[in-house]
């Protein structure tokens, strides 16, 4: 069953492309027609591509990896921040920090600096600074929070990135391709889809259009997270049952060993009781009988 229907995409304006004079010929397979100087995207192909991308993202998340969402354009900022924060995935809605993927350790240092400032505030060290130092630290903290706060939980490179408007986020796409990270993207008729692994032909300029596509994607990711949680719980339950089954076996083995030890202790005692009388006693009886024979 498709995650979106034709009418839903039509109402959101997903089919509206760019002006004919701005089109990219490589998007021709996804264009249905041209009307009033504007290209119309084939929504049937959009539905197929949305389902393909959603299925791939679900498997990535189910395996325990993370997906980074990138959307710094005005129309997409709020929508992406709202929908992606709900599923706990990292996202970038401010300026793309250069080298975020190719120079990831440096970005992690900046995130750790933000954590250090929070630690100073918690343990009271922040109160020992002067007024000017406090102002500088608070400004630095606010700047880091604005640019990197949404990726604070991203401790390693993402398994994939999802991009809204690949022309505006060209640097993010280049860095991902350099590191062989799969790229999922909403691609309009004016863009070149060559470097995109999972192309979603759609209008990337309308907030409603972006929201509809993100709804399908986030629903698939939520399913993947839920299935992963169930698998972990199942594994934990199986582990507990194995441990419970192993404990009686250990106790039984200990009992059998104890029985063997007792038997070994009892065996020498029984042998001592069954042993013949000493030779001295036999000699004494013979000596007593000799005088009787002499008479």
Characterise this structure.
With 295 residues, the chain is α/β, with parallel strands linked by helices. It has helices spanning 6-12, 43-62, 74-87, 104-123, 131-148, 170-178, 207-274, 279-294; strands spanning 16-19, 31-35, 38-41, 67-70, 91-92, 160-164, 183-187, 198-201. The strands form two sheets. Strands 5-4-6-7-8 form a five-stranded parallel β-sheet, sandwiched between helices. The longest helix has 68 residues, at 207-274. The radius of gyration is 38 Å and the shape is flat. The chain starts with 5 loop residues before the first helix and ends with a helix. The model is unreliable at 277-295 (pLDDT under 50).
Q: How are the SSEs ordered, and which strands pair?
A:
Elements: H1 6-12, E1 16-19, E2 31-35, E3 38-41, H2 43-62, E4 67-70, H3 74-87, E5 91-92, H4 104-123, H5 131-148, E6 160-164, H6 170-178, E7 183-187, E8 198-201, H7 207-274, H8 279-294
Parallel strand pairs: 4-5, 4-6, 6-7, 7-8
Antiparallel strand pairs: 1-3, 2-3
């Amino acid at each position: 069953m498709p995650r979106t229907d034709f009418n839903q995409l039509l109402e959101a304006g997903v089919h509206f492309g760019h002006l004919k004079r701005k089109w990219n010929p490589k998007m021709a397979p996804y264009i249905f027609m041209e009307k009033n100087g504007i290209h119309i995207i084939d929504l049937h192909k959009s539905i197929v591509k949305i389902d393909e991308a959603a299925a791939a993202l679900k498997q990535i998340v189910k395996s325990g990896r993370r997906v980074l969402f990138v959307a710094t354009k005005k129309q997409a900022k709020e929508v992406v921040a709202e929908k992606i924060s709900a599923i706990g995935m990292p996202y970038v809605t401010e300026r793309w920090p250069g080298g975020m993927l190719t120079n990831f350790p440096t970005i992690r240092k900046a995130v750790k600096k933000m954590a250090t400032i929070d630690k100073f505030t918690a343990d009271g060290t922040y109160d020992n600074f002067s007024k000017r130092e406090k102002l500088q630290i608070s400004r630095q903290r606010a700047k880091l929070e604005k640019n990197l706060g949404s990726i604070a939980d991203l401790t390693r490179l993402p398994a994939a990135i999802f991009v809204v408007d690949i022309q505006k986020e060209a640097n993010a796409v280049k860095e991902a391709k350099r590191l062989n990270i799969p790229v999922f993207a909403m691609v309009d008729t004016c863009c070149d889809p060559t470097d995109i692994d999972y192309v979603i032909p759609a209008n990337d300029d309308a907030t409603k259009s972006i929201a509809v596509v993100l709804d399908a994607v986030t629903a698939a990711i939520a399913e993947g997270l839920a299935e992963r949680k169930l698998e972990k719980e199942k594994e934990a339950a199986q582990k507990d049952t194995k441990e419970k089954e192993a404990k009686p076996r250990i106790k039984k083995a200990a009992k059998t060993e104890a029985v063997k030890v007792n038997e070994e202790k009892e065996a020498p005692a029984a042998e001592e009781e069954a042993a013949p009388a000493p030779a001295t006693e036999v000699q004494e009886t013979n000596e007593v009988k000799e005088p009787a024979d002499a008479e």
